[in-house]
């Protein structure tokens, strides 16, 4: 701890928090969605939280920590689900929440500091009739750089694909962790060096992303007697080129009635639903299509009374990771998966998985654009029993051509594409030569010989020590 | 002609033109793109042009013409290519050009009169940062109702599909041609009663269409050594979900150099090109992608000097039907086709057709969204020799799975889906019981027993008499 004491002295003038209870709280994210991660990461805590007010202070922190050999794990709002922001080796939790200015709004783009909360950015951009293309369901709390460094897509992905798609992030400013930290501006392909790298190879200090036309989206819930009816309707409307949605999800019964408690009064117990954000000027044609398909509207925010809407969360807070969150509040024993159902067989794949698992894995689909086509990614609820069965469920999905992005692993590779990202690894060698940034999250760095084909779970050595 | 004289008296106070030279000029459109239509329709003329100033005058004209049994053929700006607006049986040419007000601009939508020119509408909507989703290459002259009644899509279809797609037209006001004309408001599926019906079953007096975010689109021309390289690049970028384009076309050598005379200075003789309108905030990521693909930028309007840009038309005036127009100005013996290359085999289909026809049919593709996927429609140049060879070229396309929308026919069915549109036919029975609206354009009305499988060309009897 003498390292830490010396470090605190070196950071004189920068906001620091070392109350252990608060530090532990600020060392956590939503890892506890996973029973596996809950066991593995529950004890994790940093040694102190440092909250720089500007880029110059970020540079001072990184320089001092580099000199002291103290790990630094960056953090936005801590809304991730993979333990992205958890300091496995202790050290400094670098909170970027204070760096939250919206610096410039131009036609088609916004520049903001890393800790700017997405809803706050939109409030600024809406003054010019614009809003973010993409946001997670944690829109009201998540930070911009946290989304870029730890997220993949979300609301808006039905129009724009994922964050990884070229054009969805325009520019990042990144500070390296070297003896003399450098400030780099990344654009084009260089963005992939640090996007979705969990802050393992640089600290983001400025983000530029594109904007889209802002609308007062209408929340709509459509009810169906069977899940596949909901899925087919969602797929039908997602492929209507002239209709504008910001969000299209399908959720299987009994999840909507049992877990969406604020909306329960609108739902039947047997309802599978399609959850939508519809552009106001698309409502008339959408309703014409819904009538033709005999789809029943359970809720629409544009005609609901104030009394009906009182206390209701927005529909996007029923989607993506919020679906699971609402489930966990009712039944803490459940967990979830992340699945890709690739185009063009996505609907058939969903039907097959639904047939195999039934109510053990109630379906939840998010319709997205993926390489130019409409496909769906799934975040099905899992009625968890054992780790072994959870693994089995994932294996069956993969054996049926539905890749899993394992949300029960905290490393980039295990939760992601299951292979080394050579671009990110090379940039880490350059930008974090001592390996102090968010240690334990990039397997390729920690354990270059790790065998992806083996079933053994990667446990960061430092963490294993701490956990023992 | 006594009918016409009586009619003129009945229309006292409404603007009328009966100078035969002017009436003939106002009876024409761009039918002469087709050597076939040029022979068949060149003599066509109405008897007088009537230009109502408002809906009340439209009602007076239709009531009077109904009583007199005089045909009425509506006309916007006369920019069609299929003879849509040509009065095959003479009578009244109903010019809606004077009804050109932009009545309301709201968030996501605009309401305008039928004769409002698209570029004029955009000038009004741009005040709120919005623009039309879709427009033809005749943006600077075409009218809104003419586009809706006689067009199918165009610039913007890469994002929104075609006019036929639900959501791309929100509402139409239509006046019927009955003893007592009615004013109907059509929304939802009812819109299909009169959309792309050439004004055969109602006169449009008001149009409501959706808007999109307006940008100062950057014109870009990318050069390639071979056409299929251009096609593959166009297809690659069209499938990038995070990049925003308003227009993506591919044109085979030697068309760009030989026909795009104002842009010739930027082009090599051997260049096949991709023509683009790129959102300003998509330029950086687009250029990163272009560099990766070793695509050579021949022209970009955002960095061109004023001297370079002097006299240049916008890139969209090199696309869609303007490609053919520029060709016809250089070589009046050429003509063109309209082809669909369906997803997912569109690129292979283009390669096959290019292999079969070579320079007899230089390629021209427009990338569009079609039923949720990226496909392309083609308007290839045809080095015309005989009608027989032209038919043969079309047959070979259809035999290879590339449907033709024959631009050498003036009827709705022959130029369109080659089958009776029962909805439009039923609405014509209701809205035009005497068959006086744009006679000769709807085969199902004129000749219900016409055999679509036969190769015989439908010639409207009234026209045949006139032509003999």
Keywords:
homodimer; 468 residues; alpha+beta; seven-stranded antiparallel sheet; six-stranded antiparallel sheet; 31% helix; globular
How are the elements arranged and paired?
Two copies of one chain form a homodimer.
Chain A: H1 2-10, E1 15-17, H2 20-25, H3 35-41, E2 48-51, H4 55-68, E3 72-75, E4 92-95, E5 102-106, E6 109-112, H5 118-125, E7 130-132, H6 144-150, H7 157-160, E8 171-175, E9 183-186, E10 203-213, E11 218-224, H8 227-238, E12 245-251, H9 255-259, E13 272-278, H10 283-292, E14 296-300, H11 306-309, H12 321-330, E15 335-336, E16 339-341, H13 346-357, E17 364-370, E18 373-378, E19 381-382, H14 387-399, H15 412-415, H16 422-431, H17 443-446, H18 461-467
Parallel strand pairs in A: 2-4, 3-4
Antiparallel strand pairs in A: 1-2, 5-6, 6-10, 7-10, 8-9, 8-10, 11-13, 11-14, 12-13, 12-17, 15-19, 16-18, 17-18
Please explain how this structure is put together.
The structure is a homodimer of 468-residue chains. The first copy, chain A, contains 18 helices and 19 strands. Chain A is of the alpha+beta class. In chain A, a hairpin with a 2-residue loop joins strand 17 (364-370) and strand 18. Residues 464-468 of chain A have low confidence and may be disordered. Chain A is globular, with a radius of gyration of 22 Å. In chain A, the strands form 4 sheets. A 7-stranded antiparallel sheet of chain A has the order 14-11-13-12-17-18-16. In chain A, strands 5, 6, 7, 8, 9 and 10 form a 6-stranded antiparallel sheet that branches. In chain A, strands 1-2-4-3 form a 4-stranded mixed sheet. In chain A, helix 1 (2-10) packs antiparallel against helix 4 (55-68). In chain A, 31% of the residues lie in helices and 20% in strands. At the A-B interface, strand 10 and helix 10 of A face strand 10 and helix 10 of B.
